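Researcher: Re-running this chain for the archive, since the previous output was lost when a drive failed. Same request as before.
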Amino acid sequence: MAKGWLRFSHLQARNIVGSWAQLRRLQEKHGFPAGRMISPNIRIWSEEEIDAYIAACPVEGPPMRGSARQKYERRLAAEAEAALAENQQQQQQPAPQAPTRAPRGPPRKPKNLDSTDTASA
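Model: Regenerated structure tokens:
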């Protein structure tokens, strides 16, 4: 294939489209270039037209409206409140002390001091 031409697999590899259905939607609703049919089953696009389409796409989507915006603002407020409460809690806690070492293994049995030793008698 000549340099400067892209097939569908190249569009997928560049993460421009994921399926033929998505490509069709982009063409119908968002002005994606139609490309050229070079045989009955092969469609190609020039790199220039793909680059021009990508350059014309907005960097950000439209601002949030309605309930999505309210939900987003509530989530931001809750996160800020949780961070503030955590910060206040950390300031109120005393400085951490060195951890005490836990005993390893089973507890030891005390020596039996009441038993009579036959060797000492």
